[in-house]
Design a protein that fits this description.
It contains 13 helices and 13 strands. It has 374 residues and is an alpha/beta fold. It has 2 domains: 188 residues, Glycogen Phosphorylase B (Rossmann fold); 147 residues, Rossmann fold (3-Layer(aba) Sandwich). The strands form 2 sheets. Strands 3-2-1-4-5-6-7 form a 7-stranded parallel sheet, sandwiched between helices. The protein has a 6-stranded parallel sheet with strand order 10-9-8-11-12-13, with helices on both faces. The longest helix is centred in the middle third of the chain and has 18 residues.
Length: 374
């Protein structure tokens, strides 16, 4: 049997069992049985054992910890240890070391652009003004200086092609979802008086968490047995403390907040237990043109979805239909929205290729095969 081609996926703040890198990109090329797969990333609370994929943890502290400065050097050490043929970097801060490593080892370099980082930093405004401008400068410098060394880009969102017009060598591989083999068919909400809502994933102010909680509490005045679960990675300690202080004692509100990324399997289990998925994103320039992964995943699992009103998302939601677009700031309309939701026959059209990962996985397999000379 020919020797497998070594490949590295590398990030800093994404966990080694990140949904996109492990369960989508990693599993897709593992199917070919041609590659020796290595995923480098953030330490999880419980690292899973995955057949034929090596998970390597190089960072485990808070994102502002000084030890983060040494992560690129640990990454370089792994490059020399594994001697990959292809390196796929998913975060800008590893690009300079990946460029140096390419010069020394001669591998093909791919930049998986999961976020428009400089735009995020500018729009989300979670950093002080001077720190924010410095961070934007660092991102742009790392991406610009590394561009000649990058053999190919992967865009996780279609809109990145417009936002980064100077980049021509790219393939769009969207964050779509794996559709379960068993589908429910069309249905209406059953737990009308004891409905269970959930907000999951990254928990930050710009994702509209506070607005959604207030919307839920207003609805709860009419539905006292309703529940809201909030589960996910809350990177801002001050915001986590605010949520715990203000809402932990509220009846029907359950908080599962973590300072580090939670396993994707754990979050999916919580979603499966809920009736309605809330996606209350703010319509910031860094958000409004993207399609949230949670929207694809919610449709794939046939969850009822309430999402911020946005033409890009409304077109997707209305198709099946998967739910409704709402204004979470209009809390006085919460019960009216709920009554409308009860009248909808959801998923008259089943989840299809428009949300399915398999087509994206084939594109990724073909790209890796071309770069590996297969």
């Amino acid at each position: 049997m020919p020797q497998k081609i070594p490949i590295i996926f590398a990030s800093v703040l994404k966990p080694v069992d990140d949904s996109r890198v492990l369960y989508k990109l990693g599993f897709s090329i593992r199917e070919t049985n041609k590659y020796d797969l290595n995923i480098i990333g953030f330490s999880t609370k419980k690292t899973p054992k995955v057949k034929n994929i090596r998970l390597i943890e190089i960072f485990s502290g808070p994102r502002t910890h000084i030890s983060r400065l040494f992560v690129p050097f640990r990454f370089l050490q792994q490059l020399f240890k594994i001697k990959p043929a292809i390196v796929i970097v998913t975060t800008y801060e590893l690009l300079p070391m990946a460029t140096i490593g390419k010069w020394m080892l001669g591998y093909r370099l791919i930049y998986d652009v999961q976020e428009n980082y400089s735009k995020n930093i500018s729009s989300n405004q979670t950093l002080p003004f001077l720190v924010r401008n410095l961070a934007i400068l660092l991102v742009k410098t790392a991406e610009k200086l590394s561009q000649p060394a990058i053999d190919h880009y992967i865009f996780a969102e279609k809109c990145y092609a417009k936002e980064m017009p100077a980049i021509k060598n790219y393939t769009i591989v969207e964050n779509k979802a794996s559709i379960p083999p068993i589908t429910k068919g069309s249905f209406r909400i059953k737990n009308a008086n004891a409905v269970h809502f959930i907000i999951s994933g990254t928990i930050t102010p710009v994702y509209g968490v506070l607005e959604a909680i207030k919307w839920f509490l207003k609805l709860q005045e009419q539905l006292p047995h309703a529940k809201l679960t909030i589960v996910g990675h809350c990177p801002m300690e001050s915001f986590s403390n605010e949520l715990l202080t203000r809402y932990q004692s509220k009846a029907g509100v359950n908080l599962f907040l973590s300072s580090s990324p939670l396993p994707a399997v754990f979050i999916q289990e919580k979603i499966d237990q809920a009736d309605v998925l809330l996606l209350p994103y703010h319509l910031l320039p860094s958000i409004k043109d993207k399609v949230p992964t949670k929207l694809y995943e919610g449709i794939a699992h046939q969850k009822v979805i309430l999402i911020t009103d946005n033409p890009v998302w409304k077109e997707i939601v209305d198709k099946y239909p998967a739910g409704m677009c709402v204004d979470f700031l209009a809390i006085e309309n919460a019960f009216m929205v709920w009554k409308t939701l009860l009248s909808i026959d959801f998923y008259r059209f089943l989840p299809d290729e428009n949300v399915d990962w398999s087509i994206e996985g084939i594109k990724f397999q073909q790209l890796i095969g071309e770069l590996a000379g297969q």
